[in-house]
Automatic annotation (TrEMBL):
It comes from the Bacteria. This is Transporter. The lineage of its organism: Bacteria, Pseudomonadati, Pseudomonadota, Alphaproteobacteria, Hyphomicrobiales. Residues 1-24 form the signal peptide. The keyword Signal applies. Keywords: Signal.
């Protein structure tokens, strides 16, 4: 029985290490915002959006990873200085799924990302152009999943209750700090086009730390600030939408002590299709890395670039929009 659990936990540790390598990047997932005209202010109302991505790398037997990002956005009636105020709350979740062969430990895991609270100030510049500013924080210190994985396969650790060793811990070191998120987006939405560039910065308290006895074992973690760029160029034909997307991330600190060690980032290109069912809209897109800083060593000991392929699906549901105001009838003028 002990050997069986040791094998399972060791498999889980392998998943953890693969997930860490796969997401050695910003908390905001590159590509999460393509297909959204983020620079244009939304009509007043309440909107629900869910974006799901599944990612596979070229590295054999590494874990597949996915992220689900559901959020609610309230486009308020407030327009100070002509810019609409929008409030956003999101609760992302990260998943990892093993691809281990027969006879190897297998374990799927899910990790809660800190709740995102953000505000957006969006301006209609006229001529179908818009620009928006975003500021927010992922509350990783408050409610992010720690992703701590332990195994008894190695020598007991006297500093951890139960004597287990923290192999593959933490799964996602970026959760050792709140993520301070800032963004600026510009959109053109005329003639059925959505041409949008969205720049997002993720800033961390570095070094980050996890609390409790687990954090004491792990110690301080050096985190890299990151910059994401999401690009969209789609055209709507009736209810259909089709076009091209591109996205990537840039890590500023890739030194040997950084959680993003030797991984400057990645950039992917792909295509998007969508359909508007009127009560809700669906988008799907697929992208493949054209540049990557991630690497792996194959069975022959050769180093290879670890390119990724991403598949995405998104649902956009307007939950509430205020009724249109009826025009006031002009009084009839009568001659006496």
């Amino acid at each position: 029985m002990l050997k069986r659990w040791t094998a399972v936990l060791t498999g889980a540790a392998a998943v953890a290490l693969s997930a860490t390598a796969s997401y050695a990047q910003s908390t905001t997932v590159p590509g999460e915002q393509v297909g959204l005209a983020a620079g244009a202010p939304l009509p007043e109302g309440l909107y629900a959006v869910d974006t799901f991505t599944y990612r596979r790398t070229d590295q054999p037997n590494s874990a597949d990873t996915s992220v689900n990002v559901p959020f609610l956005l309230w486009s308020t009636p407030f327009t100070p200085l002509g810019g609409r105020i929008e409030a956003l709350v999101a609760q992302p979740t990260v998943f990892a799924f093993t691809r281990n062969g027969a006879g190897q430990g297998n374990k799927d895991i899910s990790i809660n990302v800190g709740t995102l609270l953000a505000g957006i100030w969006a301006f209609d510049l006229g001529g179908n152009f818009g620009v928006s500013l975003l500021g927010g924080v992922h509350l990783n210190d408050l409610d992010a999943g720690r992703g701590s994985l332990f195994t008894g396969a190695f020598a007991p650790n006297p500093r951890v209750p139960g004597g287990l060793s923290p192999v593959g811990t933490p799964v996602l070191p970026i959760f050792s700090s709140n993520t301070y998120r800032f963004g600026v987006a510009g959109s053109y939405t005329g003639d059925g086009w959505d041409i949008t560039a969205n720049l997002t910065a993720n800033i961390y308290d570095s070094p980050g730390r996890f609390g409790g006895p687990v954090g004491a074992v792990i110690g301080p973690i050096r985190l890299s600030d990151a910059l994401n760029l999401d690009l969209t160029a789609t055209k709507t034909f009736g209810n259909f939408e089709i076009g091209a997307v591109g996205y990537g991330t840039y890590n500023f600190d890739i030194s040997q002590f950084s959680a993003a060690v030797n991984n400057r980032g990645r950039f992917a290109l792909g295509g998007l299709v969508g359909y508007d069912f009127k009560v809700f809209k669906v988008q799907a897109y697929v992208a493949r890395d054209v540049v990557t800083g991630a690497q792996y060593t194959n069975a022959l000991g050769r180093t290879r670039d670890n390119y990724s392929t991403d598949g995405w699906i998104r649902f956009i549901i307007p939950l509430y929009t205020p009724p249109a105001v009826s025009p006031v009838a002009a009084p009839l003028m009568r001659k006496g």
